[in-house]
Write a structure and sequence with these properties.
single chain; 2 domains
């Protein structure tokens, strides 16, 4: 599992979703670097769950069936007076592209 530091780094939503659907994955190790994680996957010809935007060019993309996909919502907090600022609009668009 490639663990990315963040506000909720000990909860893996995709694994929780799969568990609710009756699929259990036994995690044996974690890495904190995506590049190290992808190197390990390459060496072992293994697979991982990741966003399409993070997928290295030499990996194949296999879509997750619709019933196992996460519903991701985005919440942003910023002053209302800045909602139309070019920077806010750019960042909102960028984040939406990353999580899609």
């Amino acid at each position: 599992m490639i663990r990315l530091r963040g506000w909720n780094e000990n909860v893996f939503l995709q694994l929780e979703t799969l568990k609710q659907k009756g699929i259990s994955i036994n995690l044996r190790s974690y890495v904190d670097s995506a590049s190290v994680g992808f190197d390990i996957l390459r060496q072992n010809k293994a697979a991982c769950i990741t966003g399409l935007k993070q997928l290295p060019a030499d990996f194949y993309f296999i879509p997750i069936p619709a019933e196992y996909q996460l519903e991701i919502a985005m919440v942003a907090c910023y002053p209302q007076r800045k909602r139309d600022s070019p920077l806010t609009q750019f960042l909102t668009h960028l984040i939406k592209n990353i999580i899609e």
